[in-house]
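Input/output pair, single chain:
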Amino acid sequence: MSEKPKIAFYWCSSCGGCEESVIDLSEGLLELAGRADIVFWPVAMDSRRKDLEALENGEIDLCLINGAIRLREQAHMARLLRRKSKVVLAHGTCAHLGGIVGLGNFHSAEEILARSFKEVLTVKNPDGILPGVWEEDSGQGPELSRLLDKALALDQVIDVDYFIPGCPPPPELVGEALWAALEGRFPEKGFVFGDRKALCHTCPLLKSKPEKIRLKRFRRLHETEWDPGKCFLPQGLICLGPATRGGCGSRCMGANMPCRGCFGPLETMEDHGAGILSFIATMIDADHEKEIRRITASIPDPGGLFYRYSAPKSILGGGKGVPI
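Output:
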């Protein structure tokens, strides 16, 4: 009897939703356990680093890593898993593009720590103590992992073979990637599991989307009562479907919510935020600068909206060249 393929899962800087996407395989998880040996999965098993280090290089057939790289410890583990694995798959948007975690790249590491541990109203820290790294051999306590200057997508740290987008990825795509690995039918390197076309092509509201949209104001969801049977865009609600890869099953639109872009840019798009900005600009109904500024001011946080999931991989230079 041939040996079962070995699979590993690892969680870097993320919310845990990608781990849930594996559990959401439901009965498929039992099939996975029957067809493969899960040799490393710290969130679900008593897995230790020493167990991983004891494996031969390339002994793991497939490793799914989710989350952005925000700590030096995560960068170290990603590199270790890369050595031990034949195939590495970036699991979810944080690993694929940097994700929500990547919005921290608009601030310094010091600002993030100060906000999290001193400024938030629910935190009581009168002495202003921040997490830090003890001096080596100081005897003061255990060494903590250092916060990197910038959050990084996984392929900014290691070589990545394939990508599953989504925040979190649909279990159907996770299953597709896993079964492809088990059956030895992976596509070309760099393949992103998802559609080649924009999400609009599979949106149930597509038929109500007019060919040309002209707006005098953009609205936030709490500012209006929209028609759930019509495209969000002509109603002044920003939906990122025109610039976002499809493949999610239009879940947000099915729940009467606009797309927020978690599947990332189209293959022909160098920068997701720039692509979003481009189609947003075509909808602005103004012919002079003052009016344009008034309309664009109705988008309160363009950076947070346009780069919600992709700041580290953007042309803004999020994580490029950051030493680890």
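The chain has a mean pLDDT of 91. The beta strands are 6-11, 37-40, 60-66, 69-71, 85-91, 147-152, 162-164.
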